[in-house]
Each structure stands twice: as structure tokens, then as C-alpha cells.
Design a protein that fits this description.
Length: about 550
């Protein structure tokens, strides 16, 4: 029996577009016995509160029936979508896979485990399956599972999230293979973990596992694809490409398929995720181009490079906005970067605008020393100019702040935080440097050498550096990773040898910056703990 895994890039809510995407892929796999899409593929994942709209659900089923009729001459196909719960008790929907065969919706298979951690909130919408989901096809007994259903093996995890193990129940019900429809978001290093888990499952149960994952960017989430198949001995026999659409076919008997080459180094993975996430966010939101402020610093340089690779340099506009504090080398570095990338630039000095602010504020500020207020005004002037260009030319404004800055609030709300997408807001400052050096090493030295070596600075006053206000980034990022991602306490950090004053300052800054993050542009998630839909901290709080 040959099974095709359709690794597609759906757009959330685009029912006609997703239907056609599935139909096209199914026709390319017309010589198989079963085709399989990813989780909720007809709706696009994650649909979030679109699921609360009864009309949207009804239209999705109309699209499903149209798809069934269109594919009536093809082998059966499993399509992910939301299914109404006809029972008067429980949540209103099931997260399901519908079997289309002979021009009709023959039956459905429901998801058992409904995650509520990190970016997931499925218990808000879905009712779990009550029993193992089994499909008998050509005398083969197939266990049908959806995403989280395979992530709870008692022997692989030190701590399991659920008491139920759907895979164990499928095997007990006689499953000779397990098919899993997934929409598993990317984080750096996750694919190696997935494959280790699937290897263990296949070895343990001595049956093949077919895993099909969504690909593409939807809001803050990026999906890396990498659909794969493991035989009953736990050997990888097929893997789809990473970060692009693909189709792989594997035999139930374990015959080897195509194993796409991949690069699992963190820099390669994160770079491809950011390029894909940026491209899809821009295009799926209806924009054709972007703009960003170019300061000559490492952050804006990396974001400009990502945008140029994602959208083509002809669709990127870099804006230089020098002030009296902007050094000549910074302007040179920004210009050199733009020339190497081939992007368009314009220069708009903010000196005269700063003077007009000084004049208007002279009376209310009389007797007050200059401080961060005046520095923030500069950032807000730049933000206003960038938003004006965005409005006038219909370009999406990319913000260029990194995760380290966003964590401790080293950014200006309504200033450099203005924009529609925060491309590197989940990339720590030290990782920004690693990414830039990695990119230059790929044979395309686009980041000027001077940018990689000069001290980070916002240039909002003379001789300013980031380290005037923050610990060295190596120290800061180490503390932030341990506090935000590993959930280590202040006492644990002190026991590791960090200075108490530094730890207290960083933790205080993280807590106090929460109100800024609530108003930040969406960012692309590439780590296990991002400031986005999975970050749920209170603003008014005294705990830190």
C-alpha cells in the first residue's frame, strides 16, 4: 500500500484557496492508495477564534464536499478540518480528519489530546475523541491520529501531559501502522526531537509511522514541514523538504522513499524560518513590499537581509534617518549594506524635526534636565516617518528589535517598536550576530564587516552604547534564556554565579517591560519560549 503525504502551505481562512491547494497536490499523487493532508489543512492552522464562527464552519464543509466531488476519480484522501459536535454536551467541535472517497465524505476521525500549553489553546474549541480512531483500508488496519496524539509516550517523556496514550490505544486496537496529521510549529532543534520520538515509537510498537506536517508561516508561527516516515524498525525511510511545500510517497511495507537533504544547524534552521515566516506574513496579509529603518547596526542589517531574501530586493525599501548623534560610519555602513543587498534607499534627516520638538517643549520642560525623554522623542520621530511612508506607499513596516531588547524593554514604544511585523523579536542579540556571520559565510557577504565588530548603540546621544544601560549581551542573554525558557528562579541564577545586582536588574526590567510587549508587533517564533501567543504574563503584577 502506497501512502502520499501532502505537505502544503495553507492560508488561514482561505477555504477556496486551500481546497484548490489540496486538490492540486492530490492529483500529483494519483497513483497511491491513500493521500493525507496536515492537521486542519482545509481551514489553515491555527484558525483560532474563526472556529467560533458557525458560518465559517458551515462553509468549510461545503468546501469539503466540493473537494470530495472534484477528487471522486482519485484514491481516498484524509483531509484535516473542524467537525461539528452533534452532542448537546461538550465543546462545539472536533479536530478531525475526513475521509473522502468516491465523491463523498465517507467518515471522520477525531483528535484525542487537545494541547493548552505554549501557543496552543485547543481545549477552548474542541471535544476529544472518545475511542481509538481506526481506518481499515485494503485489509490494512491504520491508526489515525492528529498531531498531539503522538506526543505522550510514557517511555519517551520524563513527564507526560496526559493520562491517555492514544498511540498505545491504537496499537491495542490492532493498528498495523499509525498515520499522524500534524500542524507542529517550528522551533530550533525541534525536528531532531520529533524524529527521535518517532523512532522510539516505531521501534517500541514495531509498526510504521507516517507523519505529515504543515509548512509555511501563519501569523507568529512558522511550520517547517519535514514530513517523514519511519518503518517498523524505527528507521527513517522518507523525509520531505524543510520550509517548502513537498510531496512524499512511502510504502506501508517500509520500502525506502526520498529522504530530502537538510541542515539542522541552528543558524540554518532559524534563517530559513525567518525568511519563510516573513514572506508568508507579508503576502498573506496582502502586501507586496516592505520598508524598514536602516541604522547601520546589526539588527536592522539582518532584518534587511531577511526581507531581501524573502521578497526580492526590489520589494524592500531602506530608510536612513540620521540625527546629530548619528555617526558618519553608521551612514556608510547602512548604505554599503543596501548596495550589497540591492535594495532601494531614501534618506530623511530628523535634525530639523528634533529642533521643532525642542522649541515646542522648551516651556513645559523649563528647568528639567535632558534625559531619556529626549532620546525617546528621536525614536518616535523616526517611527512617525516610517509609518507615514508605510501608509502612503502601502508597504508593511518591519520592526528591527531583537529578543534581548524586547525582554528588558530596551526599545521605545510608538518609536522603534512601530510596525506590522517584528522579524527578529524572538532572536537574542548574541544569536543575531551568529546569524549574520553564518549568512556571510554562505558565500554572500552582505553584512558589512564593520557592522559585525562595532559596539551596539542606539546613537540617541553622543558616545552612547547599549552597555551603558544593560549588562554585556553574553551575560544578559544567558540570564534571559535561563529565566524565560528554563524557568530558573532568582535563587537558582545566583547559585550559578551571576551577580545579584545584575540578576535583580534584569528580572526587574523583564517584569516592567510587559506593558510594552502587549503593544508590540507580532513576531516570528523560533525558540521554545517566545513573546507572542504563547506568552501569557500579567501587566499589573508584583511577582518577579
Amino acid at each position: 500500500m502506497k501512502i502520499a503525504l501532502l505537505q502544503l502551505n495553507p492560508t488561514v481562512g482561505d477555504l477556496p484557496g486551500n481546497r484548490d491547494l489540496i486538490a492540486s497536490a492530490a492529483r500529483r499523487a494519483s497513483d497511491v492508495d491513500l493521500a493525507v493532508t496536515s492537521e486542519l489543512a482545509l481551514l489553515g492552522y491555527p484558525p483560532r477564534d474563526l472556529l467560533l464562527n458557525a458560518d465559517f464552519i458551515e462553509r468549510s464543509w461545503s468546501a469539503l464536499r466540493e473537494l470530495a466531488q472534484e477528487l471522486s476519480d482519485l484514491p481516498p484522501i484524509l483531509v484535516g478540518l473542524a467537525e461539528p459536535n452533534q452532542d448537546e454536551v461538550g465543546r462545539p467541535l472536533f479536530n478531525s480528519a475526513a475521509l473522502l472517497r468516491h465523491g463523498r465524505v465517507e467518515r471522520t476521525f477525531k483528535k484525542t489530546l487537545l494541547p493548552t500549553y505554549d501557543v496552543f489553546d485547543e481545549d477552548r474549541y474542541f471535544e476529544p475523541a472518545a475511542e481509538p480512531q481506526i481506518l481499515v483500508l485494503q485489509n490494512a488496519i491504520l491508526g489515525i491520529s492528529i498531531c498531539e496524539d503522538i506526543w505522550n509516550d510514557r517511555d519517551f517523556w520524563k513527564r507526560r501531559r496526559y493520562r491517555t496514550d492514544p498511540v498505545q490505544e491504537l496499537v491495542a486496537a490492532g493498528a498495523q501502522a499509525v498515520i499522524n496529521l500534524s500542524a507542529s510549529p517550528f522551533t530550533a532543534g525541534k525536528q531532531r526531537h520529533r524524529e527521535a520520538m518517532l523512532t522510539d515509537l516505531a521501534k517500541k510498537h514495531r509498526i510504521p509511522f507516517f507523519y505529515v506536517n504543515q509548512v509555511g508561516g501563519n501569523d507568529d508561527l512558522v511550520f517547517d514541514g519535514r514530513s517523514c516516515v519511519f518503518d517498523g524498525k524505527g528507521r527513517l525511510v522518507a523525509r520531505a523538504k524543510g520550509f517548502e511545500e513537498d510531496l512524499i510517497i512511502a510504502d506501508l511495507a517500509g520500502a525506502a522513499g526520498t529522504i530530502a537533504r537538510d541542515d539542522f544547524t541552528p543558524e540554518s534552521e532559524i534563517w530559513r524560518a525567518l525568511v519563510l515566516g516573513t514572506r508568508d506574513y507579508v503576502h498573506k496579509c496582502g502586501f507586496s513590499g516592505v520598508l524598514l529603518g536602516l541604522s547601520g547596526g546589526i539588527d536592522s542589517s539582518l532584518v534587511a537581509a531577511i526581507a531581501a531574501f524573502a521578497l526580492g530586493p526590489q520589494n524592500v525599501l531602506g530608510v536612513l534617518m540620521p540625527s546629530p548623534y548619528t555617526s558618519h560610519p553608521s551612514v556608510q555602513d547602512a548604505s554599503e549594506l543596501a548596495q550589497k543587498l540591492g535594495i532601494k534607499t531614501i534618506t530623511m534627516s530628523i535634525t530639523d524635526i528634533m529642533k521643532s520638538y525642542d522649541r515646542e517643549l522648551a516651556r513645559p520642560f523649563l528647568g528639567q534636565p535632558k534625559d531619556v525623554t529626549e532620546e525617546n522623542i528621536q525614536a518616535r520621530i523616526r517611527g512617525n516617518l516610517l509609518m507615514a511612508l508605510s501608509n502612503k506607499f502601502g508597504l508593511l513596516l518591519l520592526t528591527t528589535g531583537n529578543k534581548s531588547e524586547l525582554a528588558v524593554g530596551y526599545c521605545t514604544i510608538y518609536g522603534d517598536m512601530s510596525g506590522g511585523l517584528a522579524v527578529i523579536s524572538d532572536v537574542p542579540k548574541t544569536a543575531v550576530y551568529r546569524l549574520a556571520k553564518w549568512l556571510n559565510a554562505q558565500g554572500c557577504e552582505v553584512i558589512p564587516t564593520a557592522v559585525l565588530h562595532k559596539a551596539p548603540t542606539a546613537e540617541l546621544r553622543f558616545d552612547q552604547t547599549d552597555q551603558d544601560s544593560l549588562p554585556p549581551y553574553g551575560v544578559l542573554d544567558d540570564i534571559l534564556e535561563r529565566y524565560l525558557e528554563l524557568h530558573q528562579s532568582k535563587e537558582e541564577l545566583l547559585a550559578l554565579g551571576f551577580e545579584e545586582a545584575v540578576v535583580e536588574k534584569v528580572l526587574r526590567l523583564v517584569k516592567n517591560a510587559e506593558f510594552k510587549r502587549r503593544q508590540a508587533a507580532p513576531g516570528l517564533k523560533v525558540t521554545d519560549r517566545a513573546f507572542g501567543s504563547g506568552w501569557r504574563m500579567p501587566v499589573a503584577s508584583r511577582a518577579w
